[in-house]
Amino acid sequence: MPPQKFLFIINPSAGARTTGWIPLIEEFFKGKSIRPEFWVMTSHTKAEQVVEIIEQSTPDKVVAVGGDGTIKLVATALLNKKIPLGILPAGSANGLAYELGIPENPAAALQVLLDGKARAIHALSIQNEICLHLSDLGLNAWAMKRFNKGGKRGMWGYALVSIQALYYARTFRLSLTIDDNNWKEKATMVVLANGTSYRTGAVINPDGSLFDDRFEVVVMKQISIVETLKMLIRSRSFDPEKLVIYPAQKVRIQCRKRIPFQIDGEFRGKVRFVEAEILPEAIQIWVPK
Fold first, then answer.
1. Distance from C-alpha of 186 to C-alpha of 38, rounded to nearest angstrom
2. Which residues lie across from 173 on neighbouring strands?
3. Which is the most buried residue in 31, 54, 151, 260, by most CB within 10 A?
């Protein structure tokens, strides 16, 4: 049997570790029936280029080496294809890898590529791009804007701007159309949630799953220390006067003013309108057994 080919697509500027991935991966697979190939991204890499590289390589598995933005870019190229996507977490937060139980230790994450299994996850189509994990309007998107401007990276940097966001949070008015139902709300944040939690460990969507046939629209109506503590201790009994969760197949959000917006950790500016719908079983992703 010929060796399997794994194509590693590496973001050299992701997170704190920016060098040494290729020799580490080569050393790990030495003597194994795996042939690793490598392609290093630039700051200008587009999904179309990734599609071309994958078509040229014809790999058995594609592995994104980077954070949520890198994973999203590679996943876009693999949308509705049978080639599974593996992950080596190398970003600042690694929210999707955390959600899937993929370890941040490089050797342990590489072992998952050998011992794990492929599972289909759903994605969201939002403003002509995909979302794999969490998107939101409001306070966390404001934090992402500050975080992406630079300064302290990693989890501590993310935690710092999250605390600042709580201080600067403002309520905004919006109209929601979820499937065929309409609501008007006031909120400090609205989350379009495939997964359950942010990388900080805060569980924003306790009943969510990447493997089901729906996503959740989480409306945080007001900042509450009690509700925030519930997120951190994984409580499921949120006060509906402060936080409400709607299951959805599609959603249309209209805001009275322009609100900060992010998709999978990438700030997308201020918007007044967001429309999203589920893409069922969109990506085959390699996860721990």
1. 48
2. 186
3. 260
Model confidence pLDDT, tens digit, residues 18-69: 568 999 999 999 999 999 999 999 988 998 999 999 999 999 999 999 999 8
Phi, psi dihedrals of residue 72, rounded to the nearest 5°: -65, -40
**Cβ–Cβ < 8 Å for 236, 179:** no
* Main-chain dihedrals φ then ψ at residue 5, nearest 5 degrees: -105, 120
Dig out the tokens for 5 from the structure: 């080919």
Query: Rounded to two decimals, what is the model's pTM?
Result: 0.86
Those residues with Cβ within 8 angstroms of residue 163's Cβ, 6 or more apart along the chain or in another chain:
none
Best CA proximity match to 201, nearest among 229, 155, 232, 161: 232
CA–CA separation, 143 vs 148, rounded Å? 9
Strands 4-10 and 61-66: parallel
Residue 183, C-beta contacts closer than 8 angstroms, at least 6 positions apart: 175, 176, 246
CB neighbours of residue 147 within 10 Å: 25
Picking from 66, 4, 11, 83, the residue whose alpha carbon sits closest to that of residue 36 is: 4
Using alpha carbons, select from 245, 222, 19, 58 the residue that is nearest to residue 139: 222
Would the pLDDT of 226 be above 70?
no
Amino acid at 249: Q
The set of residues, in sequence order, having a beta carbon less than 8 Å from that of 25 and lying 6+ positions away, is 8, 36, 38, 110
Helices of type H across 37-189: 47-57, 68-77, 95-100, 106-115, 139-148, 154-168
